[in-house]
Amino acid sequence: MLSAYPACFFKEETGYSVIFPDLNYTATCGETLEEAFAMAIDCLAGYLFSCRLENEPIPAPSPINKVSPEQIMQELQFKSGEAFVSMITVDVEEYAKLHFHKSVKKTLTIPAWLNAAAIRHKINFSQVLQEALKNKLHMNT
After folding, report:
1. 141/139 Cα distance (integer angstroms)
2. Nearest residue to 26 via CA among 70, 59, 63, 2
3. Residue 4 and residue 18: Cα distance in Å, rounded?
4. How far is Cα 80 from Cα 111, in angstroms, rounded to an integer?
5. Which CATH number fits domain 2-99: 3.30.1330.60, 3.40.50.970, 3.40.1190.10, 3.30.160.250?
6. Alpha-carbon distance 23 to 102, whole Å?
7. End-to-end CA distance of the chain
8. Which of 39, 42, 58, 138 has minimal Cβ neighbours within 10 Å of its Cβ?
9. Helices and strands of the chain, counted as H and E runs
């Protein structure tokens, strides 16, 4: 499902700052406008993904015509020249599959007898560890 939120882009000496007023003024930046847009997508996806993981309420997006970069600059006492608002869209679930659910390699130590028994029973070590961690963290989904 596609999520869309307005973001304020502010041109600065070293690039662009991006602020999402609806998301507690969550911010990111980029050296170029293209990089700022890419970072804005990542920022939006990360914020919404975190809210879902933590069962926190997700604020509704404001209509783009109700967001004023000038008001944001005034509220934050932020000085910038060029400023504009753009809608940033992301499919959080698809983005998370590509960027947030990457596997990481972990090394662990177990007794040799336990390793041998698990191999005899064709146990998938990664799957067992993931299940145990989810259970321990009360994240059974």
Report:
1. 6
2. 59
3. 15
4. 60
5. 3.30.160.250
6. 25
7. 19
8. 138
9. 5, 4
Residues 57-80: what's their mean pLDDT?
A: 90
The domain ranges of the chain are 2-99, 103-141
Q: Which sign does the torsion angle of CA 59, 64, 69, 75 carry?
A: negative
Q: Give 18-45 pLDDT, tens digit per residue.
A: 999 999 999 999 999 999 999 999 999 9
100-104 long-range contacts (CB < 8 A, ≥24 apart) are 100/45, 100/46, 100/49
Rounded CA separation 36/80 (Å): 15
Structure tokens belonging to residue 42: 């990542």
